[in-house]
Amino acid sequence: MKFRIYRYDPEKDAKPYYRDYDIELDPHDRMLLDALIRLKTVDDSLSFRRSCREGVCGSDAMNINGTNGLACVTNLKTLKEPVELRPLPGLPVIRDLIVDMTQFFKQYHSIKPYLINDTPPPEKERLQSPAERERLDGLYECILCACCSTACPSFWWNPDKFVGPAGLLAAYRFIADSRDQALNARLDNLDDPYRLFRCHTIMNCVDVCPKGLNPTAAIGKIKDIMVKRAI
Amino acid sequence: MAKSFPVMHFDAVIVGAGGAGMRASLQLAEAGLSVAVLSKVFPTRSHTVAAQGGIGASLGNMSEDSWLWHMYDTIKGSDWLGDQDAIEYMCKTAADVVYELEHFGMPFDRNDDGTLYQRPFGGHSANFGQKPVQRACAVADRTGHALLHTLYQRNVRARTQFLVEWMALDLIRDADGDVVGVTALEMETGEAMILHAKATILATGGAGRIFAASTNAFINTGDGLGMVARAGLPLEDMEMWQFHPTGVAGAGILITEAVRGEGGILLNANGERFMERYAPNLKDLASRDVVSRSMDQEIKEGRGCGPHKDYVLLKLDHLGPDVIIKRLPSIREISIKFANADPIKEPIPVVPTIHYMMGGIPTNVHGQVVAPKDGDPNSVVPGLFAVGECACVSVHGANRLGTNSLLDLIVFGRATGNFIVSENLKAAPHKPLPGDAAEASRARLARIDNATSGESVSAVADTLRKTLQAHCGVFRNQGLLSEGGPRAARDAHLDQRSQQDVQHRARRGARAR
Question: B11, B90, B138, B250 — which has fewest CB within 10 A?
Answer without folding.
Answer: B250
